[in-house]
Amino acid sequence: MGILSHLLILHLLWAALVFCQYEDYDFEDEYGGEPDHQLPYYFNPNTQVEVPRFPFPVECAKECFCPPAFPLSMYCDHRKLKTIPNIPSHVQQLYLQNNNIEAVPAGPFTNVTFIREINLSYNNIKFHMIDHGVFAKLSHLVQLHLQHNELEEFPFPLPSSLERLLLGFNKISRLPANALEGLPNMTTLDLCNNLLDDSVFKEKPFSNMKNLMQLNLCNNKLQTMPPDLPPSLRHLSLENNSISHIPENYFHRLPHIIALRMSHNNLQDIPHNTFNLPNLLELNLGHNKLKQVFYIPRSLQHLYIEDNEIENINVTVMCPTLDPLNIKQLTYIRVDQNKLTSPISSYAFFCFPLIRTIYYGEQNVTVSRPSQLRTPVFRRFLTPEEFQEAEDNHETLNQETEEDHEAEDSYFHPYY
């Protein structure tokens, strides 16, 4: 016991000496005085591919720029390049947009092992100038940008790792049966502004894409609703086609839809419960030929039905019953360029207690002379500051030209 007591005393004396040594030390003198309030960084092993350590400065193609702050990225955009430079093996993000590239050979990608994103948008690439399998060999590729090129066909084969594929503004007119096979991780597919018609659906190209959440088919030549879409879809864009009918119960297979955009089509009649979807937040049916309104689901927040042929908005059809425990979430309706002669019934404010804005605008009561309702914009629940901001925005909107609206509606951002 005596030995243990002595050892304990020595230990306490040593601890006191260490404490006294740092008791008056001001750590702020060494680290600048201000605490670091940055949010903690949570590393996700699925978002970064482990690459071998490399000395600085990193290797970079002479035509490009590799910033020291982003050693895994190589910027070759806006440089009038006609060919793809050799790509160092460590590169994970490659930016080649806005050049004059016409071909994608396999050579520059020979030693590329870890690349995750390639941006080849705004070039002159054609399908037959892409070496077969050049993308399929990139086993870590997650995102591929090929919009605004000259592609006549879908650029397959592709790697199974791919999650986002952007092909808008090309000349693609068909989808081979196997073009979308082996892509289990695909979440976003943008095919807007191509030459696709209903024949592309014969092989049911989208049916096996179990994780697809966003499908953009706007500005094509579709006349019918695309069949056999995966139930995983959240966002569906079908603007600027020639679709005239939505089959009854069409959306029963798509219960997770959040945003549906079908403006600039030929829709005339909507079955009553077509949009009875539990998660729908945004519905855009502007610039069609609708004569009647339809049932509004509880979840819907924004409704666009401008530039149709609606003469009367029957609120009872939109809201058959009142349920105080499950109030409807609608906050915004746009109904300008219809044939309304009177504002929406005040009963709407019982059905939709959260509604803030109804935009009436001009109404096409007669072909030769559009009329304007007494209240072009109805707003409520606005503070004076919010009201003034809304008025300023409305004045700006009135100054926009018709061409501005057409340009805005013709194509939307592929990420919603």
UniProtKB/TrEMBL annotation:
Keyword Disulfide bond: yes
Localization in the cell: Secreted, Extracellular space, Extracellular matrix
Record SMART domains: LRR_BAC (SM00364), LRR_TYP (SM00369), LRRNT (SM00013)
Keywords: Cell adhesion, Disulfide bond, Extracellular matrix, Glycoprotein, Leucine-rich repeat, Proteoglycan, Repeat, Secreted, Signal, Sulfation
Annotated segments matching region Disordered: 393-416
Family: Belongs to the small leucine-rich proteoglycan (SLRP) family. SLRP class II subfamily.
The protein's assembly and partners: Binds the alpha(V)beta(3)-integrin.
The protein's name in its UniProt record: Osteomodulin
Taxonomy of the source species: Eukaryota, Metazoa, Chordata, Craniata, Vertebrata
